[in-house]
Amino acid sequence: MSLFKQGRYSGYLRPISYLIDLSIINAFALLYFFPNIDPVIFILFSSISWVTLSIYSKFYEVYRYTSELKIFSLILPQMVLFTLIMFALSGYYHDLNIRPVTIIKYIAAIFLCITFLKFTIYYLLQKYRVSFGGNYRKTAILGTTRKTRALEKFFNNNPEYGYVHIKTFDIKGPNGSSLDDCFNEILKETIDEIYCSISELTNEQINEIADFADNNLKILKFLPDNKEIYSKKLKYEYYDYIPILSLRNIPLEDSFNMVVKRIFDIVFSSLVIIFILSWLTPIIAILIKLESKGPVFFKQSRNGFNYKEFDCYKFRSMTPNKDAHLYQATRDDLRITKIGKFIRKTSIDELPQFFNVLFGDMSVVGPRPHMVSHTNMYAKKIDKFMVRHFVKPGITGLAQVSGFRGEIETDKDIIGRVKFDIFYIENWSLLLDLKIITQTFVNAVRGEDKAY
Questions:
Q1: Cβ(311)–Cβ(301) below 8 Å
Q2: Cα dihedral sign for 420, 404, 6, 20?
């Protein structure tokens, strides 16, 4: 079971930092305030306060290119705000008789420990990158300017940041590389991040590079100059003193958001498995077996997060046939059984996918996964189709509750699906997930025209 995102991103680091810091906060609270306080109430209050403050002050937004000075600037407001909350708590519960000097000692102790551990992790991670070559990302730069040469020098002179620079492409000189040559080498070298000098590129080239990055799961960033990209929601960062623009900001790349979504997935899928599938599965199994020979469950390979294949489970709704992995069900499909027609209409056939959610291959909400053969076809045919694989696929999704579920009859269907999926990826929130789940339930009860 996977709690956090794998691959290019160090998804474990931020959640582990949260757990370590919360352990320190609550351990010292018991040391300084026990037995004057109720430990359960205090741990709940301090943990919620700390996490809320951390989100507000961006205390855990420490990246591989973050400087030591920036880390100190994150620690100071967190310390001040948490101190005020502790004094407010002692004032509200004045009968606890907690002296101000005790609070000051408590704050000093936890922040000395947290600061020490924060910098220890920071330097150990840098040492790990330099000594063992782990936790790194491969980079390529398009364009040769003063800024790109400075960025190349930054990558080469600072291995502790975890970047391995592969190549800088000259795309304007007399012997410059074409974009197709650049793309081929980027794929060959399995580059993770592409950096572009905007001044070296035309608007058409920028769009071509953006499409390539989207369709091949590459992170695309720009070195800004006098040109502007008007239609994009950009994320602004600094590598040392070099400004960097990220073309797409994905909320689920943030470790805290990943943990929140994963915890929600585990809790929600567990409740469905315990309270619904535990009794419904035997009934559906008997009905399926009575009508046709074959297995109760249908297993199909689909593409998930980072394009990785996984086995997606459903209740079998068709008679066993060799075309099941090649062709979608169509209206009045003769392969569909009588019980299959009912469970497809009510979406009961999808319920075993909650095991996929529990195992970490899927999420409750996300872009719907396609058959491998269809994914390969649409990846070549539909622009930005591959962007859907920046997050885990879902049992339901924004596209499905927006009229784009079921059979893909025309290109308009898949284009609409991709459009809504990308909107979901760029605008994810837990409230949006809850809204989609609610709408999915309403649609299942009401019935949908394309549920066949």
A1: yes
A2: positive
